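Shipment paperwork, digital attachment
Item: protein structure file
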Amino acid sequence: MHWFSENTLRFLLRLMEKNVQVIWTQCLHVLRDNLTPTVFTTWFAPIEALSFENNILVLQVKSQFVVEYIEENYLALLSKVLFRMFGPETKLEYRVQIDSHTNAGVNIPSDVSQAPVVPMMLMQQPDLKEEPDFNSQLNAFYTFETFVQGDSNKLARTVALSIAAQPGRSSFNPMFIYGGSGVGKTHLANAIGNEVRRLLPQKRVLYVSANTFQLQYQDAAAHNHIPDFLLFYQTIDVLIVDDIQYIAGKRATQDTFFHIFNYLQQSGKQIILTSDKSPKDLHDLEERLLSRFKWGLAAEMTKPDYELRKNILLNKMHRDGVVLPMDVVEFIARNVRDNVRDLEGVLAALLAYSTLDDKEIDMQLAEQVVGRIVEIKPRERSMTEITDAVCAEFNVSADVLSSQSRQRDIVIARQVAMLLAKQYTDISVSDIGRHMGNRTYATVAHAIEALNAMLKTDVVLGQRIRRIANKLVS
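Attachment content:
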């Protein structure tokens, strides 16, 4: 048995370490000759060889994402190079550095004799407190308090609240919010982020548009900072990507986002995506991404109906300390139908014109301003539309409605149809009577008067009439 002095052992260890580094450098030369400059510089050049003992080569990498990406895309080539340089019995382990100051890390084994390798378990990330200067890029105004709920967004808002309370811990991961322009997707996504920061201030929340993500990726690739780019996104607890459809056709960006998505989702982090289309209607996106978009919940947000449009206006007026005549509010809500942005734009324009011209906001000014932004549709509706809407609400037939029945429910339904016909058509009172079973002018006038008196005390009936009116103006 040979005994070596401590100095001799240190010398032998330094020699072995030097040999490992020399051989690995030769491996890098071979890899560089078989890869594009960008791929080599991004993925392989930063790797360091730490040791080679008992046929186990340990390579140090910056993050687990690097391990996953290399194993998925370049394992076959790496295996050939290692077998040639280190021998056919070589086994590979990666040491993932989790502390840049102490070089502390986690070793991950790899079977280089098989390609591709079975996906590995993710390393445990250290607890990260949000830095004081970390910018979540959230719009502080977009909160649940400023988000007005209606039938068109009720499901999405309800799910969003549950996610904000326990991000990453529900089955709604990812949450995929989709709908047309201006229906409130960005507002709701930001509201989730702001609520998470309020309830769980230690969480790292990031809002980013898909276009910004694309530009960040291009900049990182151009400056060989892809590992740092990936490592940053791996530290996010709640990632919100707005307008994800804009990465369509950008293969490299999609590939990078795929790996970030996988890492965050498997690590129990929350992902929120918005889009103008549902996952099944998105085109030129990789199928593996689309399948993951469908893992959680796809919540549609549709155009706001009349009641929601009116409530949005009232809510904004309350926040801004603005008072408008109710007929102006209803006129705007009735004619500005497509999205919330137009509603807010009309309100801002009204205030501007009123201030500049020193005029009160009335119907005349409202018609001028709204007419410049949208096409004002006539409010007239046909008698058939009105009677159909009333019959649906009161569950009666058109024949019964115009019959001579004196049953209370039918009489009230008939009176409602007369009132709405007067409000939403240009038909004379006499013609309304003829449509409603050949009733006289006096009968119709008396019916409308009686109904108006009843509405002063009957709240439920008033709600039913507003429900019918909303359908007529939506």
